Amino acid sequence: MKSRCVAAPGAFNALAARLVARAGFDACYVSGAAISASTAVPDIGILTLDHFTRVIREICAAAHDAQGPIPVIADADTGFGEAEMVRKAVIEYNHAGAAALHIEDQAFPKRCGHLDGKTLVPVDHAAKKIQWAVKASLDCSDGSLIICARTDARSVEGMDAAIDRAKTYVQAGAEMIFPEGLESEDEFATFASALKDTASNDGRAGAYLLANMTEFGRTPIIDLSRFDRMGYNLVIYPVTSLRVAMGAVSRALEALKRDGSVASFLDDMQTRQELYDAIGYTPGQPWEIPGR
Predict the structure, then answer these.
(1) Percent composition of the chain: helix, strand, coil (DSSP 3-state, to 5)
(2) pLDDT tens across 221-242, in order?
(3) Which residues are catalytic?
(4) pTM above 0.85, yes or no
(5) Domains of the chain, with CATH numbers?
(6) In 3D, which of 188, 133, 148, 137 has the Cα closest to residue 1?
(7) What are the phi and psi torsion angles at 77 (to 5°)?
């Protein structure tokens, strides 16, 4: 991120994380929305910290290729509670193997960042959570676990408020800022310009900036190269792999129900050999965790 914008596709389970790494990506993202949807519940903060960290641990163990592991950025929703739970979440995420996490400034119960009806906590309340998260990172990882602050203020209080909140979170210690729900490329550019002198990170002006390239929301589809030119350091694709997979599963089940056979979609499946290659397994030979 010091030199270019990094793409981080979402992984909703360990096998998806392995495929992200094998595809040549330099980072992987774990979405709270994807974890929730995978258990057939909405993204409103229902699942526990233990559930999140179990999935993150599995994904971190699998997110590597022949060259080794790739960093995993993980969604921590609203921090699973107040200051004490924020500290616990940071420590548990670090133990699970995450390289970074983000905490948002919504009130519980939270909503997807691209839906209406969101409510924010007071800015000083959110900043206090960031301070606790930063201290916890220093205590458990010597600060190597990046703390990212997400603000949902754009669609609640307006763009100026989102920028002001982001600056406050940087002052509270956030090393990365995630502006959620921006609605145009111009807004992303405006936000980046406003934040560029707020902090300094290893030769690149401003706090690190994260952009959310989710589908079917408020944000138009923007190319990674455009984000790079605007000064963003990381672009996440949080639910892309889940949507692709579940869309394929739904269509396949419909065809199986209709036809009584898998013949019409057999060519769309991952083959047995492709699956074995992905998990590094050769039948008849002792299996070792690849990359370990």
Answers:
(1) 45, 15, 40
(2) 999 999 999 999 999 999 999 9
(3) 29, 43, 75, 77, 102, 104, 112, 150, 180, 212
(4) yes
(5) 6-245 (3.20.20.60), 246-279 (no CATH)
(6) 148
(7) 50, -130
